[in-house]
Amino acid sequence: MVRVGTLPFRLLAAQYGADITYGEEIIDHKLLKCERRVNEYIGSTDFVEKGTDSVVFRTCHQERNHVVFQMGTSDAVRALTAAKMVCKDVAAIDINMGCPKSFSVSGGMGAALLSKPELIHDILTMLKRNLDVPVTCKIRLLKSSQDTVELARRIEKTGYPVNCVLSLVRIPLINCRKVVDRPRDPAKWGEIADIVAALSIPVIANGDVFEYDDFQRIKTAAGASSVMAARGALWNASIFSSQGKLHWEDVKREYVRKSIFWENNVKSTKHTLKEMIMHYSSLELPEGKAIIKSETLADIAKLYEEEKYYQFVNENRFLVNGSR
Ligand SMILES: Cc1cc2nc3c(=O)[nH]c(=O)nc-3n(C[C@H](O)[C@H](O)[C@H](O)COP(=O)(O)O)c2cc1C
Questions:
Q1: In the chain, which stretches have pLDDT less than 50?
Q2: How far is CA 278 from the centre of its chain?
Q3: What is the widest separation between alpha-carbon atoms in the chain?
Q4: Positive/negative CA dihedral, 310, 312, 314, 317
Q5: What is the structure's pLDDT at 317?
Q6: Integer Cα distance of 233 and 227 in angstroms
Q7: ipTM here
Q8: Most buried pick, 94, 176, 246, 251, via CB within 10 A?
């Protein structure tokens, strides 16, 4: 999730039980302007825009085998060059073929790819042939089930490992929404089931997972290999816990601590907190207003009475490094 799926949020989801986490979409052009830096102070691996301190992608060894780097692209060679920069630090590379936003579509990326099966084929083939990590793609339902099945079959033909354990990682990820749908529209699980039935590769179903039980319900209804949650996780990342959800205020506090620990981009932290709060109350209330006013992680720490934690982390970086 853009501005949400940064390292603290991914680790939060993983802590509550998510097996695999996807990073926010990063455009290939942007990654190509970066250099890889090991950040010993924090214990992370950063991809930083050259000549600046702007972290475009931050990851760490704890999530090395669970995190998928999601990329926006419209060109096979560029996608490969960008993917090669990060592939040793992540578990898999995903190509976003579902984003309907104009900045994506006008650049020939995201959902624009859905009408260019030849280009999809080129990108996936190029990545699969030249990378040692698995490649997945996230698509949306097309106008008819038949169109979607046709597209998914072309994706399937780009090849996947015969070994079924490995095949887990080359998953075309079917997002059960049509290109014109917005996230609040009802999802159509029957259509996913039709597509899954027509394919021999694993499919992750995505859409309208708001409770832990939804994972199994949707997995069964769609016949999918696994299930992905976005908004349900954003509103309460403990949705992944088989023990039941924690109170969202506790989850939010844990997110704040992780943001502090990993020195998350404050804009990302603010955005994520705002999205969480908007679901339960209003940004017009004092907490929302204070988030909007915050300029640094120290401000956020103060707002959530985590100043001692903030101070402790910053004074003991080398002692606590890697402990979370
Ligand atoms: C705040 C937000 C950011 C998102 N960013 C991305 C993204 O970067 N890449 C992507 O493939 N989908 C993105 N999506 C779409 C979700 O991955 C997902 O497909 C959609 O929200 C439907 O799933 P849900 O019902 O579980 O929310 C985003 C959704 C939200 C709400």
A1: 161-171, 323-324
A2: 20
A3: 59
A4: negative
A5: 81
A6: 12
A7: 0.99
A8: 176
What residues have CB less than 8 Å from 218, skipping those under 6 apart?
189, 205, 207, 208, 209, 224, 227
> Of the CATH numbers 3.20.20.70, 2.40.110.10, 3.40.50.1360, 2.40.30.10, which one belongs to the domain with range 7-240?
3.20.20.70
The residue to mutate among 217, 231, 234, 274, having the most atoms of ligand 1 within 8 angstroms of its beta carbon, is 231
Which sequence spans correspond to the domains of the chain?
A: 7-240, 248-320
76 is in an annotated binding site: no
Which parts of the chain fold into alpha helices (H)? Answer: 7-16, 28-32, 76-86, 102-106, 117-130, 145-157, 164-167, 189-198, 212-222, 231-235, 248-261, 266-280, 286-293, 297-303, 307-315, 317-320
Residues 287 and 191: their CA atoms lie apart, in Å, by 41
Within 6 A (CB) of ligand 1 lie 1-2, 4, 24-25, 70, 96, 98-99, 138, 175, 183, 206-209, 229-232
- What count of other Cβ atoms lies within 10 Å of the Cβ of residue 31? 23
Give the closest residue to 224 by CA, choosing from 183, 191, 185: 191
Active-site residues, by number, are 99
Token pair for residue 120? 């999809």
pTM (2 decimals)?
Answer: 0.93
